Structure formats: structure tokens, C-alpha cells
């Protein structure tokens, strides 16, 4: 199912930084009308000025903000659920407040925004929803809750995709590995591993755009990471040994 982006209205969460800002720049060049969401007005305004986007300041941890975000994007053709946060450390040391915050931003907000915007896309018989998940969806050490939220997104996307069948609405899950963005600084622990190497936010943005245009179900960035996911299903013993060796960045 090919999808033409020119002239489409796109709601992009987490548009103020990293992967979201790079995606906004690329979509603006494709001729999209953008609505960018984030908490920090300064970052949002900066990307908004570069891309001609409308910007909306909202905290996605607050469920009462979500209808306002969806209203501002009523009739949107594309929803890109990109906003996300991390937390690194052993689960037993993770304060409940952080658990709740990760669940709210990474999982509950994308589900609710999809619930609010999907009916119109379906009625119109066209649209696309993207979930920016992570290779951490396979389950990695010291990122148990983050992994759970990203695996949750992947499973949710698969379920909704089945429900939509031939309704003309595409659903894509994007699973990046490590990406060079402020994400690691913000979560409080730098990315210290030499492998896998970090990729650029621009590469992930280009895969998001291509996945929408081509109607791809899943996109791993870089592509070879797809092998890790396939190995988890097909060779769980070997996968678990390798995940023990490589699946954590300390
Ligand atoms: N970087 C990586 O290695 C990597 C790898 C795999 C997947 N990902 C995923 O990619 C997505 C984008 O991350 P990134 O690497 O680009 O990180 P980033 O540069 O830190 O960007 C995160 C974005 O999410 C927004 N955000 C965070 N909390 C929010 C909240 N409560 N309400 C509204 N917006 C919020 C931030 O906006 P404000 O600060 O303005 O609120 C920012 O625009 C995330 O879902 C992340 O999990 C990242």
C-alpha cells in the first residue's frame, strides 16, 4: 500500500528533539503540514520555525492533556507516536514514580492518542500510525520497564494492524538500536558501549518516512537488528546467551 505524504497533516509527538526533530525536518521537505508536541517550548519553537510546523506544548504523562492534543490534530492523516523517555538501572532500584512516568509517556499516551485519532482515519479509509519502539523490546538488562513499554507498543501495533485489515490505514512499528540523541543524557546514563554503534537521528527519520510511504509493518534501524528479533523467536537459547553478553550498556 503506497502512501503519498505531500499535503498530509501529521501529528508528531516528541518533535522538539532527536529523532522527532529530524523526522519533522524530513516531513516538512515532503510537503506535510506538521503539528509537533513536546513539553519544552523553546525546543519546539526552534523546530517549528525550521519546519513551518504548528507547535503544541503538552505533557503526555498527564492523561487529561491527551484529548486537547488529539483535538488540535483532528482530521490528521498521520500520527507518529515518537515521544519517549528512558530510565537505566536495576528494576529493584527503580522508584515507582519513574515506573509510572515511563508507562505513561512511552505506552499509555500512544495508545490513547491512537484511540482518539484512528476512528476518523478509518472512516476516511486512509491514514497511517507509527509507533517508535526500540530494539529494547526484546528485553534488555537494566532497562526492564523501558523494554516492557517498547514491547507493549510493538504488540499493540500488531493487534491494531490485524483489526484494521483492509481499512486503508497503515500501522508501522519502528525499532531503532542506539541513536545519537539527548535521550541517554536525559535518562541519566550515557551510552557507553562500542557495539552496536550509534546511528544518526536522520537515519531513523528517513526509515520512518520510508515506512509510511511504503506501508511497512516493521522497520529495524539499522536493518541487521531484525536478526536479533528473529533469533529470539527461532533460537531462544542462543538469543538469551547473546542478550546476556550484549544486552546492556555497562
Ligand atoms: N536514542 C536512542 O538510542 C533510541 C533508541 C531506540 C528508540 N528510541 C526512542 O525514540 C524516541 C525518541 O527519542 P530520542 O532518542 O529522539 O530522544 P530525545 O532527543 O530525548 O527526544 C524525546 C522527545 O520526547 C519528548 N517527550 C519526553 N517526555 C515527554 C512528555 N512527558 N510529554 C511530551 N513530550 C515528551 C521530548 O520533548 P520535551 O523534552 O520537549 O518534552 C522530546 O521531543 C523515544 O520514544 C525513544 O524511546 C530512542
TrEMBL record:
Belongs to the short-chain dehydrogenases/reductases (SDR) family. SMART domains: PKS_KR. PANTHER family: DEHYDROGENASE/REDUCTASE SDR FAMILY MEMBER 7B, DEHYDROGENASE_REDUCTASE SDR FAMILY MEMBER 7B. One of its GO terms (cellular component) is membrane. Keywords: Oxidoreductase. One of its GO terms (molecular function) is oxidoreductase activity. Gene3D superfamilies: NAD(P)-binding Rossmann-like Domain. The keyword Oxidoreductase applies. SUPFAM superfamilies: NAD(P)-binding Rossmann-fold domains. This is Ketoreductase domain-containing protein. It comes from the Bacteria. Residues 8-182 form the Ketoreductase domain. The keyword ATP-binding does not apply.
Amino acid at each position: 500500500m503506497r502512501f503519498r505524504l505531500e499535503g498530509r497533516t501529521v501529528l508528531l509527538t516528541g518533535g522538539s528533539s532527536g529523532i522527532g526533530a529530524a523526522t519533522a525536518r524530513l516531513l516538512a521537505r515532503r510537503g506535510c503540514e506538521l503539528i509537533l508536541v513536546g513539553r519544552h517550548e523553546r525546543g519546539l519553537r526552534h523546530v517549528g520555525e525550521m519546519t513551518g510546523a504548528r507547535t503544541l506544548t503538552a505533557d503526555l504523562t498527564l492523561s487529561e492533556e491527551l484529548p486537547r492534543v488529539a483535538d488540535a490534530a483532528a482530521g490528521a492523516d498521520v500520527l507518529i507516536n515518537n515521544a519517549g523517555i528512558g530510565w537505566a538501572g536495576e528494576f529493584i532500584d527503580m522508584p515507582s514514580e519513574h515506573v509510572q512516568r515511563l508507562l505513561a509517556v512511552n505506552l499509555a499516551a500512544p495508545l490513547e492518542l491512537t484511540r482518539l485519532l484512528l476512528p476518523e482515519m478509518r472512516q476516511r479509509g486512509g491514514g497511517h500510525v507509527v509507533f517508535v519502539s526500540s530494539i529494547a523490546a526484546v528485553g534488555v538488562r537494566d532497562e526492564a520497564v523501558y523494554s516492557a513499554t517498547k514491547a507493549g507498543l510493538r504488540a499493540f501495533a500488531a493487534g491494531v494492524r490485524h483489526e484494521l485489515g483492509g481499512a486503508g490505514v497503515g500501522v508501522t512499528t519502528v525499532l531503532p538500536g542506539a541513536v545519537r540523541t539527548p535521550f541517554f543524557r536525559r535518562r541519566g546514563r550515557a551510552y557507553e558501549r562500542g557495539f552496536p554503534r550509534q546511528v544518526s537521528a536522520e537515519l531513523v527519520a528517513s526509515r520512518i518516512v520510508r515506512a509510511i510511504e511504503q506501508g511497512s509493518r516493521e522497520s529495524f534501524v539499522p536493518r541487521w537488528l531484525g536478526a536479533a528479533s528473529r533469533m529470539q523467536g527461532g533460537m531462544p537459547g542462543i538469543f538469551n546467551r547473546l542478550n546476556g553478553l550484549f544486552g546492556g550498556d555497562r
